[in-house]
Amino acid sequence: MRLQSYGAFSEAFHNTGGLARLPLNGTIEVTHRCPLTCAHCYNNLPMADRGAAAAELSTEDHLRILDELAAAGCLWLLFTGGEIFARRDFLDIYTHARRKGFLITLFTNGTMITPRIADHLVKYRPFSIEITMYGRTRATYERLTGIPGSFDKCMRGIDLLMARGLPLRLKTVAVTINKHEVLDMQRFAEERGIEFKFDSMMNPRIDCSHSPLAVRLTPAECVAFDLQDPRRMDEWKLFAEKFLGPANPPERSDELYHCGGGVNSFSIDPYGGMSICVLSRVDRFDLRRGSVLDGWHTFLSGVRKKKITRPTKCTACELKSMCGMCPANGELENQDAEAPVDFLCQVAHLRAHAFELPVAPHGDCEYCPGGTGHDGLMAEAAALKATHGADRMAAAGPRLLPLAQVASGGGCSSGGCHACSGH
After folding, report:
1. C-alpha span between 143 and 165 (Å, rounded)
2. Packing angle of the helix pair 115-123, 150-163 (nearest 10 deg)
3. CB-based burial, 344-360: b 16+ in 10 Å, e otherwise
4. Is pLDDT larger for residue 29 or for residue 281?
5. How far is C-alpha 210 from the chain's CA centre?
6. Domain boundaries, the chain
7. In the chain, how many H helices and how many E strands?
8. Which has the closest alpha carbon to 128: 108, 113, 112?
9. N or C: lower Cβ tally within 10 Å for the chain?
């Protein structure tokens, strides 16, 4: 028997599925309710929100959808929220999915994990469990979550999963409140032999409220984190080189979407809305009124074929791999799928100059030579290189994980858009 690594298997499977346009990767938000009130979260609702609870898909709805997903060829499932364990029937939903053979990842904040839940996960082992830490100290953690006692509950959840040898990973989102403790969280994970990842990119709430942006790091702070670790910087360079060039080839340059959404991935919200990704709320197919196959083959196929209506500086930009600009980000931040997000543009250009990567001309861009923001950005890049060059040379102490292990998004319910990152 010939053995194959998981990475090789996953890549081959995605390549094949992409050609066949199969819904390989699914993200299911089972609820937006959560016991925490995190300042940065993009979709959390109060636990006691009866209206939200009543509007959520029923247990029977979930079981039917899971059956249809299995028949359609889906293999990877991410269950996320809100907080997945806020639903009393979540283990019933999860167990049904596990018995159908899905490779399942669970996103949770860990605060609601009990011995009974941990024991159940031992019996029906998931592919991965990711817990988001919001700080290494109780004060920082609870300043971000807004809930006294939540730090101890999270630590208990981590201990319960570790004691049972479950496939646990830890992650965080770096914001103004906890940025000084990211390395401490990294140490905490390393000392326990747990993989750790983090991200500093954030987006508005799904109702387009900009409230989470109040704790978003500046572009310079985001890039400073990258420069702290030579491995992380090298991974960014390799990533940029791999995807150097326009996001789409010339014959597809008029397409709106450049990701895997609607090609091999999809998302389902708590109310049965099937969309191209977890952040996109404009085009949704109601799974209460139609089947998964209807949503995938007819509705999302049409969404995926959308064309741009006008050229922007993003159209020919070769830095898209370094910024993460996509229609969903445009919708959330600018209420326009095609309008460039200024924050992402700054980060991408600052990364490129800090890493000494070429920036090809791509239209009327504020951060390219001659643009109103170019001189200021170049000064920031020079300051970052001067400040962190010595740190890179020293390369001492705990180091942040490389890009391949970096999360994406803002909160425990995020941490990686399947449309972009795959598995």
Report:
1. 30
2. 30
3. bbbbbbbbbbbbebebe
4. 29
5. 18
6. 17-201+257-305+408-421, 216-256+312-403
7. 16, 11
8. 108
9. N
Q: Beta partners for 168?
A: 129
Average pLDDT across the chain, whole number: 88
Residues in the chain: 423
Q: Which of 121, 146, 124, 125 is nearest to 134 (CA)?
A: 146
Residue with tokens 């570790």: 162
Q: What is the pTM of this model?
A: 0.90
Residue 304 has pLDDT above 90, yes or no: yes
Q: What is the pLDDT of residues 245-263, one digit of tens each?
A: 666 667 777 899 988 999 9
Q: Which two tokens stand for residue 390?
A: 């010595």
Q: Six-digit token pair at 63? A: 């079981």
According to DSSP, the residues that pair with 132 across neighbouring strands are: 171
Q: Which CATH architecture has domain 17-201+257-305+408-421?
A: Alpha-Beta Barrel (3.20)
Rounded to 10 deg, the angle between the 374-394 and 342-354 helix axes is: 50
DSSP designation for 84:
G
Reported as type and span, the H/E element at residue 275 is strand 273-275
Distance (Å, whole) CA 258 – CA 253: 9
Contact 171, 196 (CB under 8 A): yes
> What percent of the chain stands above pLDDT 90?
67
Tell me the C-alpha to C-alpha distance, in Å, between residue 149 and each of 32, 84, 87, 116, 142: 21, 19, 21, 20, 8
Round to whole Å and give the CA distance between 328 and 79.
Answer: 20
Decide: helix, strand or coil at residue 94: helix
> Lowest-pLDDT range, 54-58, 179-183, 317-321, 407-411?
407-411
The one-letter amino acid code at 143 reads: R
* Residue where the block lists tokens 């750790």: 196
pLDDT in tens, 337-381: 999 999 999 999 999 999 888 888 888 999 999 999 999 999 999
